[in-house]
Design brief:
By secondary structure, the protein is α+β, with helices and mostly antiparallel strands. The chain is built from 9 helices and 4 strands. The chain has a 4-stranded antiparallel β-sheet with strand order 2-3-1-4, sandwiched between helices.
Length: about 190
């Protein structure tokens, strides 16, 4: 069994796109999750080259470096953490505890590695991702700002508004009026 890591997988559609590529290429895959693919057997260099080329054409990238793979895993865990908060409305544990438990590394090591490569802390990356999720929900216009704040695990509407303005320069209500033109794809955050 072999695991390969894939950069820029940020949603369920990404998983489906990678599954389709693997099936069309007739590669022996078992499972596809955000940021990784498990194969039943090791791929030949020619297969890896072909897969890499097709994935790049879709905006994905195979990762060979262990540190880069670890950073990608941190990003995927952060997105999963946000999704869990959105589904439950509750933070079960701190993000740092969650990442540490999942990856079995000291958080200070992970934080330093992430910051040195990405140029932003894990916490700031987390905030940016939550703000992008808030933008998405604001554009839909089906929930109040208070409901969005609760869904994304902010302590209050005021906390969401302060974070939102700090990141975007706009209030959530103003963003809602001009919304669609200000969204950033999650893989570009």
């Amino acid at each position: 069994m072999e695991t390969r890591f894939v950069r820029n997988m940020v949603c369920q559609r990404c998983i489906l796109a990678v599954q389709q590529v693997l099936t069309q290429a007739q590669l022996p895959w078992d499972e596809v999750q955000l940021g990784e693919v498990r194969f039943r057997e090791a791929l030949l260099p020619a297969q890896l080259g072909q897969l890499s080329k097709v994935l790049q054409s879709l905006g994905f990238e195979l990762i060979d470096d262990r540190k880069t793979a670890l950073i990608e895993k941190i990003k995927q865990l952060t997105l999963h953490y946000i999704q869990t908060i959105a589904e439950t409305g509750v933070r079960q544990q701190n993000l740092s505890d969650y990442i540490t438990r999942q990856l079995h590394f000291d958080y200070s090591y992970l934080s330093d590695l992430f910051s040195s490569v990405e140029g932003v802390t894990i916490e700031n990356y987390f905030i940016a991702q939550r703000i992008e999720k808030a933008k998405e929900l604001l554009v839909y216009g089906q929930q109040t700002i208070t409901e969005i704040a609760y869904e994304l695990g902010f302590s209050s509407m005021h906390h969401l508004s302060a974070q939102f303005k700090k990141v975007t320069g706009l209030t959530p209500s103003h963003f809602r009026k001009i919304g669609l033109h200000k969204r950033i794809p999650l893989d570009k955050v």
